């Protein structure tokens, strides 16, 4: 079985997290500050990151369909294209998708309509796969 996490991320060494929230009129679901420790290790974050994750519902953290998650995220930013374009000129802006799999094989299927919407959205898509017990 596969489940998915879908988020838009903006990262950079001089990224002002409060400015991004104000410009996009959204509260981030996760932030990272350059130089901040990663978990309990001695490693630190090499750049700051602002993230906005979309979820299928208040009680559900993961999407059963990557396509549904991507459509929801694209819709959430449809009125913010100009702001994203401005950030793309100075920072790395991308869609981060986690694919959590409890078995080998399978994976997401994307329709031509979603592929076109992604191309029109104009940011990179990063798909990371993780083994999951659930």
Estimate the global geometry from the Cα principal axes.
Answer: globular
In spatial order, strands of the major sheet run: 2-3-1-4-5
Number of domains: 1
Percent strand equals: 25-35%
Explain the overall architecture.
The chain is α+β, with helices and mostly antiparallel strands and 134 residues long. The protein has one domain. 29% of the residues lie in helices and 29% in strands. It is built from 4 helices and 5 strands; from the N terminus they run E-H-E-E-H-H-E-H-E. The chain has helices at 17-24, 66-76, 81-90, 112-121; strands at residues 2-12, 30-32, 48-54, 92-101, 124-131. Strand 4 (92-101), helix 4 (112-121) and strand 5 (124-131) form a beta-alpha-beta unit. Helix 2 (66-76) runs parallel beside helix 4. The chain is globular, with a radius of gyration of 15 Å. The chain starts with a strand and ends with a strand. The model has no long low-confidence stretch (mean pLDDT 92).
Give structural attributes.
134 residues, alpha+beta, 5 strands
Layout of secondary structure:
Layout lengths: L1 E11 L4 H8 L5 E3 L15 E7 L11 H11 L4 H10 L1 E10 L10 H10 L2 E8 L3
Parallel strand pairs: 4-5
Antiparallel strand pairs: 1-3, 1-4, 2-3
Helix pairs in contact: 2-4
Summarize the structure.
This protein has 134 residues and is α+β, with helices and mostly antiparallel strands. The protein is built from four helices and five strands, in the order βαββααβαβ. 29% of the residues lie in helices and 29% in strands.
């Amino acid at each position: 079985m596969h489940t998915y996490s879908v988020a838009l991320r903006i990262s950079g060494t001089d990224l002002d997290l409060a400015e991004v929230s104000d410009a996009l009129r959204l509260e981030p679901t996760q932030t990272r500050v350059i130089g901040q420790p990663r978990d309990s290790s001695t490693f630190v974050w090499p750049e700051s990151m602002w993230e906005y994750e979309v979820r299928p519902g208040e009680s559900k953290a993961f999407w059963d369909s990557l396509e549904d998650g991507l459509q929801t995220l694209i819709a959430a930013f449809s009125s913010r294209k100009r702001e994203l374009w401005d950030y793309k000129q100075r920072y790395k802006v991308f869609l981060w998708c986690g694919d959590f799999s409890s078995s080998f094989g399978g994976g997401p299927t994307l329709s031509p309509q979603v592929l076109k919407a992604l191309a029109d959205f104009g940011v990179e898509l990063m798909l990371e796969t993780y083994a999951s017990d659930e």
